[in-house]
Automatic annotation (TrEMBL):
Topology within the bilayer: Multi-pass membrane protein
Keyword S-adenosyl-L-methionine: no
Superkingdom of the source species: Bacteria
Listed name of the protein: TRAP transporter large permease subunit
Amino acid sequence: MNFDIVFVLLALIGMIAALVWDKMRPGMVLLTVVVFFLCVGILTPKEMLEGFSNKGMITVAMLFLVSEGVRQSGALGQLIKKLLPEGKTTVFKAQARMLPPVAFVSAFLNNTPVVVIFAPIIKRWAEAVRLPATKFLIPLSYVTILGGICTLIGTSTNLVVHGMILEAGYEGFTMFELGKVGIFIAIAGILYLFAFSNKLLPDSRTDTVSEDGEDENPGNFHRVEAVLGARFPGINKTLGEFNFTRHYGAIVKEVKSGGQRFTRNLDTVVLHEGDTLVLWADDSFIPTWGESSVFLMLANGNEATEPVSKKKRWLALGLLIFMITGATVGELPVVKEAVPSMRLDMFFFVCITTIIMAWTKIFPPKKYTKYISWDILITIACAFAISKAMENSGFASMIARHIISMADDLGPYALLAIIFIITNIFTELITNNAAAALSFPIALSVATQLGVDPTPFFVVICMAASASFSTPIGYQTNLIVQGVGGYKFTDFVKVGLPLNLITFLISVFVIPMIWKF
């Protein structure tokens, strides 16, 4: 091995360790690695910055704003209320009404706002009909993931892989191309949740801090649940070091972290992203901090008081349909031939949709920077550079040769399985976009050395990078429902591991039938 390969290997090991140990935000970790590659000459400044101008990355940024527009229109809240049955029902009947439509919605919207809006409404509804909320919240997170793998825009990972494919000189994915396999995985996953989630998921775990205790607190405070986001300034600090009451004017009564509840010695509890704090807060807390990026979710058990006009709701839905339809029709061969000078793809239509939403004030245009997750964008941009460094150094080719030699007698199917397993392990430990960045150049090198079409390997990376079911840390929606539902780490393992296996088997056997080697 030459110096470049050794350096890339050590840098990637350090990157994975830093991401697993949560030393910094993923974007900063990846940016650090990219700067190291720049310093030793593995990357040129142009190669380092190419990811920041990639269409896939900018499309993700625009989709954050489109999702926010739909969220603020109130359409999602109205949808889930209509899906939830009124009166006495069973877990199975409620799941049957709720899960398939949620999967459909998440195929076109960012998963996080879907879960942020649906989770507190579902929890409140479950308490009202006397069903365990724990039977619905993990399935809610899982079906948003399952829906996301069915379209190009369903998850940022699909757009990242799509961007890398274009950079490599191949034809990218069309709007619904990934749905050729994603729909089989989604249907199988939802049927699995219908059949087994009720048995595998725990019964309700009542909160240590109950609603009945409100009168014991001064100032007529009431109970609020707050899920901590990446921008919360007290991350990796104890409550004693970070004075929550001084910063936010609310009293922390309980901390839910990693499936555990802490109600005593709270000053010694270390805060992490995704932790849920049970607070006593006054009426001004949610209006003040409801749109702040420091909290992923705020819920007080009440309906939103600010009405949303039907005109705004229908306009938001109409623009979403326009974007999806336009991107789908724009990829048709007849349209490409009719307008050869323009690329009427998802990037084109998401740009138009975002601008219309801003000028019609579907989301507040003066606050648009608040709704974009900049860390995810930096992670994506750096992922392109890391992928390029793996290719430039020869590291990807070396790993590809070892993988081919291990599965030499088994053929492309075995290599497809190995790529899936590698990507899936990465996505459970680190971020899904970083997992795709590490796997993509290896998959491309494997296909090149075998002399086969790389498309099946690209598709399997999309499926594996999104299949984060076995741990709460691999996907943000899992973190959110963990705190809201009071789940333990083992709850995700019990329900999610078979779902990982289902995704693996369908991917490995169905993908080569659709995209030939």
